[in-house]
Design brief:
Elements (H helix, E strand, L loop, with lengths): L9 H14 L12 H10 L5 H14 L3 H16 L5 H19 L7 H5 L6 H12 L8 H10 L7 H11 L2 H17 L26
Bound molecules: iron/sulfur cluster.
Length: 218
């Protein structure tokens, strides 16, 4: 990647998100889930794995175990059997069992709605917690994944040397009316348009606003 772009100004960012909002008013995450608990499990399983791969594994798992109680009844070997196509599956299965036990013991089987409580669960880091807060509680939490980190620096929408700095740049610079959906607009833009190796600039709705050195001119 080329050198990080400078932070874009307010008016350019406002225009970028106005266009994202017009083209996709209700952007959705791509991890399948049926309730807050299965969302936590799906996001925890998705670390260093693709959403498509996680969805394939959880399709059957969540039919059998969509609550922490049912997951505990399935047991570690049962969880492993379902998720063994996912990277780091043994460790992830252990964490799913441990976090399910904590939810039952300490939270009455209900997923807590604060970042501090979420990150106290095994296998749940700040990024996972922020995805859950954003997707389930519609809280404007920003989970910076590889796509957001890349395009934040490439475009100047939210540049930063670290994941935390990019998270702060989003919170500080994206107008509040776009904060809730910013997470998904940026991820989807990075996943399907502003791709890592070869951005599809010809199909980019913010092309005229983009000053990135990676922009492909044709
Ligand atoms: S013009 Fe190209 S580099 Fe710029 S945001 Fe769009 S896809 Fe990314």
């Amino acid at each position: 990647m080329t050198a990080p772009a400078k932070q874009l100004d307010y008016h350019t960012i406002h225009e970028i998100f106005t266009r994202f909002a017009a083209s996709d008013p209700e952007p959705k995450g791509e991890l399948d889930h049926v309730n807050a608990y299965t969302l936590v499990v799906a996001v925890a399983l998705s670390a260093q794995s693709t959403d498509v791969g996680v969805n394939k594994a959880t399709k059957e798992l969540f039919k059998i175990a969509d609550t922490p109680e049912k997951m505990l009844a399935l047991g570690l070997d049962g969880v492993i059997e379902h998720i063994k196509t996912i990277g780091l599956y043994r460790n992830k299965a252990k964490n799913v069992i441990k976090l399910s036990q904590i939810l039952v013991d300490d939270y009455g089987g209900v997923v807590p709605s604060s970042r501090a409580a979420l990150v106290s669960l095994p296998g749940v880091g700040r990024k996972t917690a922020n995805v859950v807060l954003n997707m389930w509680w519609s809280y404007p939490a920003q989970a910076v994944d590889t796509h957001i980190f890349r395009i934040g620096n490439r475009t100047g929408i939210c540049p930063g040397k670290t994941v935390e700095a990019v998270e702060r740049a989003i919170e500080d610079n994206i107008p509040v009316e776009f904060q809730h959906h910013a997470h998904h607009w940026l991820i989807l833009h990075g996943r399907y348009v502003c791709k890592a190796r070869k951005p599809v600039c010809a199909n980019c709705i913010i092309r005229d606003l983009c000053t990135s050195e990676d922009k492909i001119h044709d």
